[in-house]
User: Fold this.
Amino acid sequence: MSVAERLLIARLKARDEDAFNEIVRLHGDKVFSLVYRMIGNRAEAEDLAQEVFVTVFKTVDSFRGESKFSTWLLRIAANHCKNRMKYLSRRPTDGAAFDEAAEEHAAGGAAAGRAPPVQGHIEAPDVLLEAAEMERMMQAAIETLEEDHRLLIVLRDVEELSYEEIGEVTGLAEGTIKSRLHRARMGIKEYLAKHTR
Amino acid sequence: MDHQAAADSFSSYLEGDLPEEVKLALEQHLGTCIQCRTELAAFRQALGGLGTLRQPAPERFLPQIQRQIFLRSKGRFFGRRWMLFGRIPFEWVSLVMIIAMLVYYIAALRGAPTAVHPAP
Assistant:
């Protein structure tokens, strides 16, 4: 851990509000992205991602520096996701929620208040729709995976964490991560092969 | 190398993690097996698609979190801060005023008339 990060965490433990704001700026995108891809519903993901940072603010004293702060934070996010998914699995699912998000993406996300896509030019409508359809398909593929496999796919292939970092988040050995990840990837491939003909 | 062994190697192959002899065996197999070449291409495409799925947090993400903490801490954290001219924190203004009053007090003490001396 760098000196700057140690100082930031020390300030956070003292409940320094500016330090907390900095933590959200540094890690907010990654946490939201993880939660969104795990849950698959934008409204639920916003709610849950906020909850993750509230938990961080309340329990930061329990961070002992044995792992990276980012992996500690993602572990909290993963645990929140698991709990929320258990709760949601008992509720009837709202299949329209993700379609709505995909349509908003196609429209540039302006209505949802999302940050615009990082592009240097304006895409043609058919290109945007194709991208939205691909995103919808990929998310649907991810949602066919069991929870543990879904987490590994999101951590490695979406968020590009190293195997060491994934080990810190999940507590799994590298060999186990690699074999489960491969099975998850094959599952994604097979889903796409079946649904894109 | 058979089809199953080839498929089992795809992840390690694309991550550059295969031992050299296994990599050579896989490439040899791919050179003669169109089915596995097709499977590998589909596998690679699936991974490529996953890499585009990152989502930025919504614009009001931080203010919403601050609001949650404010409510749950009953106003103890992330309450409104009073600022002079919208920039200078209340604590600094108070500190400067205290120092100014101390300086004035010391200056006033030094400039005060001394006790009246009796006539020689």
Observations:
- The mean pLDDT of chain B is 88.
- Chain B has six helices and two strands.
- Strands of chain B lie at 83-84, 88-89.
- Residues 3-50 of chain B form one domain.
